[in-house]
């Protein structure tokens, strides 16, 4: 029998004028666990506006994988 796997997350409300994202992780575009080879781990910078893509499921936009550091300004 397989054990249940647990997921957790958090919601953080930031000031509306926070626009810049700098992070160390896979990127520079949206990344998922099955797309890691094509997205090297490095220090990436982008804006919140540039990271938005109008996907059908809006919760999928801006996904970052294996992020070890993030700075929001």
UniProtKB/TrEMBL annotation:
Residues 6-72 form the Beta galactosidase small chain/ domain. It comes from the Bacteria. The keyword Hydrolase applies. Its EC number is 3.2.1.23. Keywords: Glycosidase, Hydrolase. One of its GO terms (biological process) is lactose catabolic process. GO terms for cellular component: beta-galactosidase complex. Pfam families: Bgal_small_N. The keyword Hydrolase applies. It catalyses: Hydrolysis of terminal non-reducing beta-D-galactose residues in beta-D-galactosides. GO terms for molecular function: beta-galactosidase activity; carbohydrate binding. Gene3D superfamilies: 2.70.98.10. PANTHER family: BETA-GALACTOSIDASE. This is beta-galactosidase.
